[in-house]
Design goal:
globular; about 170 residues; 5 helices; about 15% strand; five-stranded antiparallel sheet; alpha+beta; about 45% helix
Length: about 170
């Protein structure tokens, strides 16, 4: 298990990019004592409240990417092949996208964005829309990637959206 230090910038699955601002037992009623917690300060405008995560958590957390890594991922977008579920069964479609998103791996997240952006464009050409499930997974993948890349590259999420969209051919 990776141990983080005060000052580290991490990606926490439910919140996105956060800074570790403290490690220890917070003086907050309702939290278990004798357990050490990371106090995470979200760096996204979407989240403002401190988050307390046990240091022995099983929840997904990793170091946030840096500018060099973000640029590398962006340069790979044009070569990402779209991937779609082999079934049209709603449960199978949901499982397919949940599995990709659940890795919190940027390649898999970009694969969802590329695949569903292309599908969304195809639908728009026919005056149709993505279904609700696909739209939801696209939005979640975009939120995760755009926020982390925006932090890494010191840009806004909208700027990252435009950069990524322009790379999807």
């Amino acid at each position: 298990m990776v141990m983080y230090n005060v000052g580290d910038v991490v990606f926490y699955y439910s919140t996105g990019v956060c800074e570790v601002v403290n490690i220890g037992e917070p003086a907050i009623e309702g939290l278990s004592h004798n357990i050490s917690y990371y106090t995470l300060k979200p760096l996204s405008k979407n989240h403002r409240e401190m988050i307390y995560v046990p240091t022995n958590t099983k929840a997904f957390m990793r170091y946030a990417i840096n500018a060099e890594q973000a640029q590398k991922y962006i340069s790979m977008i044009e070569n990402i092949e779209p991937e779609y579920p082999e079934t049209r069964n709603p449960k199978g479609v949901q499982d397919f996208y949940s599995n990709l998103l659940g890795t919190y791996d940027n390649i898999n997240l970009l694969k969802v964005i590329v695949s569903l952006t292309l599908k969304k464009r195809q639908c728009a050409d026919k005056n149709k829309h993505l279904n609700q499930t696909q739209s939801s997974f696209l939005r979640r993948a975009q939120e995760i990637v755009y926020n982390e890349f925006a932090w890494a590259l010191d840009k806004t999420s909208d700027e990252i959206a435009n950069i990524i969209d322009s790379k999807i051919l």
